[in-house]
Amino acid sequence: MKYMMFVCTDTEPDTDKENEPDIDVWVEENDAKGRRLQGMALAPTSTATTVRVRNGELLVSDGPFAETQEVIVGFDLLECADLDEAIEVARAHPMAREGRLELRPFADFEQ
């Protein structure tokens, strides 16, 4: 099952710095096991463009629309047997301690 894992910042990171995971090790391990299909960091929110259409009018603005301290800073596309495995993969990611990870399965419109 494929999951999109959004990597986000958080205003309250873990203060326990002991045994912090290494992102390079996490990537290598999950790439080797075929669980991480793709992943990438995103450019800062200052480079973002928000696009909306309202009443037929195109509205384009710089940056994210909502002001928030929690932002998406990257993503990983995961292939896991089930949600439990995806949770274990996310648990070992460094941003599970420094930020937050949102796991979301891809929709299956054929069911």
TrEMBL record:
PANTHER family: BLL7171 PROTEIN, BLL7171 PROTEIN-RELATED. Gene3D superfamilies: Dimeric alpha+beta barrel (3.30.70.1060). The lineage of its organism: Bacteria, Bacillati, Actinomycetota, Actinomycetes, Streptosporangiales. It comes from the Bacteria. Belongs to the YciI family. Residues 1-109 form the YCII-related domain. This is YciI family protein.
